[in-house]
Specification:
- The protein is built from 8 helices and 17 strands.
- The longest helix has 18 residues.
- It has 2 domains: 106 residues, Immunoglobulin-like; 257 residues, Zn peptidases (Aminopeptidase).
- A 7-stranded mixed β-sheet has the order 11-12-14-13-15-17-16, with helices on both faces. A 5-stranded antiparallel β-sheet has the order 1-4-10-6-7, with no helix packed on it. It has a 5-stranded mixed β-sheet with strand order 2-3-5-9-8, with no helix packed on it.
- The chain is α+β, with helices and mostly antiparallel strands.
C-alpha cells in the first residue's frame, strides 16, 4: 500500500507567531513574508511552524526583509530552530537582495523557526505563578493593557533604595525576558550572597514584560495600538501607552535610585549599555556611577564589553521620551539601557546556539552582581 502524502504547511496562528505564506508547494520552494506590527510599519520579528518535512532539505525565503525595521541586522544573522520548543539552535541562513534564506533539514514532523528563541506569554504566566510561591516575594498587577492583559510586577527586598528593572518594551526582543528569568531566579535564592545583599539594601521591582500585547501578537516593536513604548515616557496616555502610564505612576510612588531597561539590538553583535548622556539635569555623580557600573560588569561577564555601543547624545539633546533618559532626568538616579544581540556576542561566539536564552539569563545574574558593587553609592 502506498504511503499517504504528507502536506507541507507553514503556520503562525499561536502566541507570538508572525509570518505570511506567499508560496508553499515543495520543501525546497517556500516563500514567506513578515507581517507588520498592527497600526505600524515596523516589522522584523518572525516565528512560525513548518510541518510535513521530516528528513527533507528545506529552503525558506523571507522575501520582504529589505523593508524591515533594521535591514542592517540581516547580514551575518542566523535564524533559530527547535523541534521541542525548549532547545533552540542556529541554522544556515543567508541574506542577499532583500531576501533572507533559511536552510534546514527537520529531524521531526514539525519544527519551529524564529528570529530569536521566543518567550511566550504562557511561560510568562508560569514564571509569575512560580515566583508567587517564593518566600518574601510579592506579585501584583500595575494595570491593564489595551488588549486587557495584566501588567505584572514582581517585588522583594526590604532595603531603603528602590531598584526598577524592566524588559520587553519592544516585544520582539525576547532575550530581554530570558534575562529577566535569570535575574529573578537569582534574586529568590535564599543562600546567594548577591541576592541577600541586594534584598537587604533595596526594594526591588521587576517588570518581566512591559508589552504583553505586542508579545502575544508577534510584534517587533509596538503594542496593540502600534505605539513604540520607549518613545512615550515624556507624556504617556491611556489610549496609546497604558503600559507606560501604569509603570511611571508606580515609579513616581516609590522613587527610583537605579533603573535598567533591558533590550535587544538587531545589528550589533555585542552586549553593551547605553546611558543618559545629554539629559538637561545630568550630574557628574551620575556619569561616574554609570562608568563604574559598566566597568564592573565588563570585569564580571566575559560576554559584556564597553568598546562598541550607541554614540552618546550631545549635551542637552537627550530624547526624554525614552525611559532611561526620562528616569535619569526625573529622579537624578543611575539609569541605563542594556542591549543584547540577536546574532551572537562577537567577544565569545557560540557557533551552535549564538546568543541564547541561557546566556541572556546568565547576563541577568551577572548584572545583579555588578549592581551590588555600586548600590551603596546610589545615595
Amino acid at each position: 500500500m502506498a504511503a499517504a502524502l504528507v502536506e507541507v504547511t507553514v503556520s503562525a496562528a499561536f502566541d507570538s507567531g508572525n509570518i505570511e505564506v506567499l508560496r508553499c508547494e515543495r520543501p525546497h520552494d517556500i516563500d514567506l513574508a513578515i507581517r507588520r506590527d498592527a497600526h505600524s510599519d515596523f516589522y522584523q520579528w518572525f516565528h512560525f511552524r513548518l510541518s510535513g518535512t521530516k528528513g527533507q532539505a528545506c529552503t525558506l525565503r523571507i522575501t520582504n526583509c529589505a523593508g524591515s525595521a533594521y535591514p542592517g541586522g540581516w547580514p551575518g544573522y542566523r535564524a533559530v530552530v527547535s523541534t521541542d520548543r525548549q532547545t533552540w539552535k542556529r541554522t544556515d541562513t543567508t541574506y542577499a537582495d532583500g531576501i533572507l534564506t533559511i536552510d534546514v533539514t527537520p529531524s521531526a514532523d514539525s519544527i519551529w523557526i524564529a528570529y530569536f528563541a521566543p518567550y511566550s506569554m504562557e511561560r510568562h504566566h508560569d514564571l509569575i505563578a512560580r515566583l508567587g510561591h517564593a518566600p518574601g516575594v510579592s506579585t501584583r498587577v500595575l494595570g491593564r493593557t489595551l488588549d486587557g492583559q495584566d501588567l505584572d510586577v514582581v517585588e522583594m527586598g526590604d532595603g531603603p533604595l528602590h531598584v526598577w528593572l524592566y524588559a520587553r518594551q519592544h516585544p520582539g526582543e525576547s532575550m530581554a525576558e530570558w534575562w529577566m528569568e535569570g535575574a529573578l531566579d537569582r534574586l529568590i535564592e535564599s543562600d546567594d550572597a548577591v541576592a541577600i545583599g541586594l534584598r537587604s539594601r533595596a526594594r526591588l521591582h521587576l517588570i518581566p514584560n512591559m508589552n504583553p500585547d505586542g508579545s502575544r501578537r508577534g510584534h517587533l516593536r509596538t503594542n496593540a495600538a502600534g505605539t513604540n513604548l520607549n518613545r512615550e515616557w515624556a507624556g504617556p496616555s491611556l489610549d496609546r501607552s497604558p503600559e507606560v502610564v501604569h509603570t511611571l505612576a508606580a515609579m513616581d510612588a516609590t522613587g527610583v535610585d537605579f533603573a535598567m531597561d533591558v533590550h535587544g539590538d538587531e545589528s550589533l553583535p555585542h552586549n553593551f549599555i547605553a546611558g543618559f548622556e545629554g539629559i538637561p539635569n545630568i550630574t557628574e555623580r551620575q556619569l561616574t556611577l554609570l562608568g563604574e557600573y559598566k566597568n564592573i560588569l565588563a570585569r564580571i561577564s566575559p560576554d559584556f564589553q564597553t568598546r562598541v555601543g550607541y554614540p552618546p547624545s550631545a549635551p542637552g539633546k537627550a530624547n526624554l521620551t525614552m525611559s532611561t533618559n526620562q528616569l535619569a532626568n526625573r529622579f537624578g538616579c543611575l539609569a541605563m539601557t542594556l542591549e543584547m544581540p540577536f546574532k551572537d556576542a562577537a567577544e565569545n561566539p557560540d557557533p551552535v546556539a549564538g546568543w541564547s536564552p541561557e546566556r541572556s539569563a546568565q547576563l541577568g545574574r551577572d548584572c545583579l552582581a555588578a549592581l551590588l558593587e555600586v548600590i551603596d553609592r546610589l545615595r
